[in-house]
Design brief:
By secondary structure, the protein is an alpha/beta fold. 35% of the residues lie in helices and 19% in strands. The chain is built from eight helices and ten strands.
Length: 234
């Protein structure tokens, strides 16, 4: 069984979806600490040819809180403002009419907390793209919460019976091959194809690593699913 473990990110870039689509089971790390100025509650879209942030509003977020402890404002006006920004940015995109109802449903969702809100959007994009990977919440697992870092990952892998653990290429310095092999687990690192390109507005210089929303607005579901396979494993 191939396993990946990641924090819940708001409409993350395509490499996150390549990882999620490529494994059999994906653990949403919802009970680890929130990270300020990260990708948990915000991402970037293309506005007038430039990347611009959009976000979900929180109430009193702190790095001392777990992601599933961070409260949301659940402010309808704030959600509608974000939706207007997205609609203005992509209203002329070829897949806007198909994709925007999904975005509306996600941004209008009244989550119990930040982790619930973001995980809901992950599930809905999975449904949209017909991704059948099993999604598991870390907070619902029977695990040793006293462990940290690599030891916690190894504990979850062992409890779930993983034969392979997949991680984005940026995490190579975090893990030791030997420790995983001792548990009978193969450690793999996913590198997204850096030649991925598609036509954005104006046909100018391509802006990479934006939210999956940018991919979905310019590519059909079938084209997007094709992009999900464009990676290498190390």
């Amino acid at each position: 069984m191939k396993l990946a473990i990641m924090q819940p990110y708001l409409f993350p870039y395509i490499g996150y979806w390549q990882l999620l689509n490529g494994v059999d089971c994906f653990v949403v790390f919802d009970d680890v600490n929130y990270i300020n100025r990260g990708w948990i509650n915000r991402n970037r879209i293309l506005v007038d040819g430039e990347p611009r942030y959009f976000n979900v509003q929180m109430r009193g977020a702190s790095q001392n809180q777990r992601i599933n402890e961070v409260a949301l404002t659940n402010d309808p006006e704030a959600a509608e403002k974000q939706l207007r920004t997205i609609a203005q940015a992509y209203g002329r995109a070829p897949e806007f009419s198909r994709c925007f109802p999904l975005v509306q449903e996600c941004m209008r969702y009244e989550g119990r907390n930040l982790a619930d809100f973001v995980t809901h959007s992950i599930r809905r994009v999975m449904d949209y793209l017909d991704i059948g990977t099993k999604l598991v919440l870390s907070s619902e697992l029977d695990k040793d919460d006293a462990l940290r870092g690599q030891d916690k990952i190894l504990d979850i892998c062992t409890r779930l019976g993983a034969a392979e653990y997949w991680n984005p290429i940026g995490g190579t310095a975090l893990y030791e091959q030997e420790r995983f092999l001792e548990r009978g687990i193969r450690l793999r690192f996913l590198r997204a194809d850096d030649t991925i390109r598609y036509r954005q507005f104006g046909g100018g210089e391509f802006v990479p690593n934006l939210s999956i929303l940018d991919v979905l607005m310019f590519n059909s579901k079938e084209e997007t699913r094709g992009l999900l396979t464009r990676f290498s494993l190390l």
